[in-house]
Amino acid sequence: MFGGESKRGQRRSSLRCVLLCLAVLxxxxxxxxxxxxxxxxxxxxxxxxxxxxxxxxxxxKDAVVLIQGxxxxxxxxxxxxxxxxxxKVIDTTGKFILxxxxxxxxxxxxxxxxxxxxxxVTTVKDVGNDLLWIxxxxxxxxxxxxxxxxxxxxxxxxxxPPPARETHVGVDTPQMAQRAVALxxxxxxxxxxxxxxxxxxxxxxxxxxxxxxxxPVTGHIRRTDxxxxxxxxxxxxxxxxxxxxxxxxxxxxFEPGQNELQTFIADLKAFSQIETAKADELIKLLASRQVALxxxxxxxxxxxxxxxxxxxxxxxxxxxxPQLAYVPGDVRKQWASSSFYKLKNADDLAQVQAGYKKLQxxxxxxxxxxxxxxxxxxxxxxxxxxxxxxxxxxxxxAGFTPMQAITMATRDNAQFLARGKExxxxxxxxxxxxxxxxxxxxxxxxxxxxxxxxxxxxxxxDTNYHANYSIPTPRPAIKRPVWLEQQLQRxxxxxxxxxxxxxxxxxxxxxxxxxxxxxxxxxxxAKASHLHHRCCSCCCRW
Length: 542
Ligand SMILES: [Zn+2]
Fold this sequence. Notes:
By secondary structure, the protein is α/β, with parallel strands linked by helices. It has helices at 2-41, 113-118, 131-142, 174-186, 200-212, 226-231, 243-246, 260-270, 276-288, 297-300, 308-320, 329-337, 346-368, 386-398, 402-416, 483-498, 501-507, 516-524, and strands at residues 44-51, 60-68, 71-77, 88-91, 96-99, 101-106, 121-126, 150-153, 157-159, 168-170, 192-194, 217-219, 236-238, 292-294, 434-437, 451-456, 459-460. It has 18 helices and 17 strands. Strands 1, 2, 3, 4, 5, 15, 16 and 17 form an 8-stranded mixed beta sheet that branches. The longest helix has 40 residues, at 2-41. The chain is globular, with a radius of gyration of 26 Å.
């Protein structure tokens, strides 16, 4: 009996021990789980700063912005917005709270991520890279494996054959052009970019297909001029390209014997010959068709800006930073010398400066006519992020208010990408991509450089530079045929065989949100516009 009791007692004490152990394990692991859930879901309260929400309205002083998870949950005056004691309070008294900046024209390289973030750029649109690599990097950034901004991308630029650059693909019939659009979309492209040699007929086929799939078309054009492109349904003109051709001031073909740099300078100089009455007429058409102008002045017109010496001095400081030793040597050499942005010939410089004044006029007239002007830097070897901050300064130099420039780099850019419901402004329900500045950019737009804190996707970002910065998937050398060319060849064969090409392409389409652009367009104006594309020249390899 005793023995039995004793056994029962042993069993009981064993059971107690197991329960105790379980309880301890629960406390340890359960506690950790709870703690980690609390940590990631802990509310963040930005308290006391002046809110510039991206909508362009009057700033809200002594504001509170509440963030939960990766979303903004509440925004308002300090005396109206309550938050729990458990919230992490970040005092922003005397500071300025803005949406994370969006750069609409960049060329992503492995080394760029933390530089974008440190300068307050939380979203970029890549306009020329290997499609499969940029798709991978974009996804890795989304998963937090790459410390860098959100990446939207166009993949391969579409041109009439033969493709002039390694990230372009030639399309020679409207059917092939439409297949290319569907294939790009199937790999997550947020926009289509068209190139210099493309014909109006092919452009029309491309815009029709892209708009059907809910994405915009933007172009760095030449053979098709700005007027023809607007009539063919283009949504954005990168570098304000095609404008000179529409006014008969520059040839539609590249001139034999001229290198890329000579063509680039000749184009800039030709802006000085623009007659304002003729420009006004063209602007009226572009604005009425909701074609956005994307001037990328920080790269294309820096040469003519009065700020160029100041920019050169600033770049030289970045070149010396030991924490940026991971930036490729040729890029740091460019920062040290700013050689791209110097013109030796005084007559050339005078003409480029006169051209710059005409460009500023065009941008202001376009805006006054109801057209969109977007903020984009064309970063490929300039300091990522800093180049977009400079674009805002140059927009203010052109005559826009700091508030207008900020709105272009936040709300307007998001809307062009059909992402206006998710990002671009600080309102409840949107992604918590937010920056805090230590000085007022509305008084002096240079203060856009004074980024003190960056929050991306609800997480506070480390804005320091790290000499060992790297990304998991390095940018590969491009091998032809690229994926898109392989698919187009395959489609051609399969079409010859059974006529099932289009269906095959469509069933291969995992991407969603295809209709977002269409919806956003409806909200905006009657027509639509979104997308842009483009690329640069002298400076631009794409
Ligand atoms: Zn470019």
